[in-house]
Amino acid sequence: MSQLLTPDPTILGGIIAFEGLPPEVLAWLLEAGEVRHYAPGEVVVEPDSPADRLLAVLTGAMQYYAVTSASHTPVFRVEAGRITGVLPYSRLQVFRGQGIAAGETTLYQLPRSQFSALEHISPELVQRLVGIMNDRARDEVRAQERDDKLRALGKLSAGLSHELNNPAAAISRAAAALSESLLVKPELLQHMLAACPPPDAMAALVALAVLPAEAPAPLSALQASDREEVLAEWLEDQGCPDGYDLASSLLDAGLTLDTLAPVAARLPAEARIPCLTWLAGHLASLRLARDIREASQRISTLVSDVKTYSHMDRAGGREKLVVTAGLDSTLNIFAHELRQKNVRLLREYAPELPLIMGQAGSLNQVWTNLIDNALDALPEKGGELTVRVTKQGDFLCVSVQDNGAGITPDVLAHMFEPFYTTKPAGEGTGQGLDIARRIVQEHGGRLEATSQPGRTEFVAWLPVNG
Known about the structure:
Layout: E1 3-5, H1 23-32, E2 34-38, E3 43-45, E4 53-59, E5 61-67, E6 72-79, E7 83-85, E8 98-101, E9 105-111, H2 115-121, H3 123-183, H4 185-195, H5 199-207, H6 221-237, H7 243-252, H8 257-265, H9 269-310, E10 319-321, H10 323-333, H11 335-340, E11 344-349, E12 356-358, H12 360-377, E13 384-392, E14 395-402, H13 409-412, H14 432-442, E15 446-452, E16 455-463
């Protein structure tokens, strides 16, 4: 339990904010406040308790913790000579965290009720305390902005890892299968040469060893099964022991019994098995090579999207931007979450949109916040996200619309206020929309929101000649 002390009149001299104050002001502070001693680990401030006093650390230190049902996380530490707690003109009503004495600690405490009297006793000290409050607020906003960016980056990184893993795994599988396919090619070549097929028959066979420019028209499951069975039986009649394996590769390349039978008829009987096996393996190798190329291109596209999104390859100043490029890169990075939630995505971009002057990285942060909030609001089934860009007079209008439950009028009225959030503790800081609004305003525009059940829309108005 803390102990009330009778302090030495000079004890307040160690507080940085009190340095150089007249003796009569220090004497008034001691008379209006109190000095208490706390044992190591003793609680000074409880979470959600009234923010009713200024605290100055005379000796020892005080450690602040963010407290939730699941965690007790250190936030910051106030050393001897520093001031914390509530300050004059602060709107803080309750302490959000827990303050604990770090070792033997002595604190000076001035009740909030004495702040009005302090204004008359020492306007200079009030001015110093307001400066401390402003610095503290600025540092807190910066920390919250950094946390919001890290939270968004973490979410995007998780989705991006899935997006990169899929083509990387496809490349690995295709490369392994291609290696196996190439291992048997020398033996097949030896068997083909031993059978001495006529040149015209080989020319007809080689003419089939090309993948079609377009995939064959899709068949129903029953049609595909019937064709595979017919072709497999014919292949086995030619002496192929693995007719079904070969049939699948040949049909995937658009070859049918009507195409293959005339070519096989021109081959010597002993050449048909190695020639047809070579043809199926060659077509399979071409498909595997195509799969590797497409997966590699997907990875290149994702890397390009990340560069566009993060603006890594350009300077940080403003330049002429294609707004839809930033939107597309942001949406592509959200691709995993969009698929995971089975969201129907609609991109409605007006033709011949003008460029705007802007900072790409900052605007991409806006799109991230708006899209992320929209995804959180979507229903479990039937979710629809519409991203629309139009030109309205001298402004480019970027709209992010969802078909979620909507935002109630009382919540909508506070949506852009800093630290206002409806999300559970630990899932949101209430900074995202405030940051987005300020970024749009810094670009000379405005951010607006409208909502009704089944339709919520955020619109960023950006000047074309900003």
